[in-house]
Amino acid sequence: MEVQFEADVQAKLEKMALESGRSAAELVRDVVAGYVDDLAETREILNSRYDDIKSGKVKLIDGEEAFARLHERIDARRNRPA
Questions:
Q1: pLDDT at residue 34, as a whole number
Q2: Is 2 part of a structural domain of the chain?
Q3: Residue 39 domain flag
Q4: 3-class state of residue 13 by DSSP
Q5: Are 24 and 14 in contact (CB under 8 A)?
Q6: Would 63 be classed as within a structural domain?
Q7: Which residues have a Cβ under 8 Å from the Cβ of 61 and sit 6 or more positions away?
Q8: Sign of CA dihedral 61, 66, 69, 70
Q9: Which of helix, strand or coil describes residue 69?
Q10: Structural domains of the chain, count
């Protein structure tokens, strides 16, 4: 597989490779591997949340109610004695 980068990104990548003592290809492989792992983890979390909603395990609330609850928590923390 070949990947083409914009000139400025290529220059940054080459500089980072030189500074780290690793090849640009190694850096790209590490970054892509990390991204793919993060994406897979995010997908698992979203699927789990969707399953929880679909099964009724989690109750949805509307945005206005969510913001109201958030503001109540913020206000409560601000009003706590120090």
A1: 97
A2: no
A3: yes
A4: helix
A5: yes
A6: yes
A7: 69
A8: positive
A9: helix
A10: 1
| Count of beta carbons in the 10 Å neighbourhood of residue 24 | 16
Distance CA 77, CA 82 (A): 10
- Lookup: tokens for 82: 């120090």
State how far the Cα of 64 lies from the Cα of 79, in Å rounded to an integer.
22
Q: Is residue 1 part of a domain?
A: no
| Portion of the chain with pLDDT greater than 90, in percent | 88
Q: Is the pLDDT of residue 75 over 80?
A: yes
Q: Is the pTM of this model over 0.70?
A: no
pLDDT of residue 82 exceeding 80, the answer is no
Contact of 64 with 54, CB cutoff 8 Å: no
Query: How does residue 80 score in pLDDT terms, banded at 50, 70 and 90?
Result: confident
Residues spanned by the domain of 71: 7-78
Q: Taking residues 42-52, what's their average pLDDT?
A: 96
Q: How far apart are CA 61 and CA 68, in angstroms?
A: 11
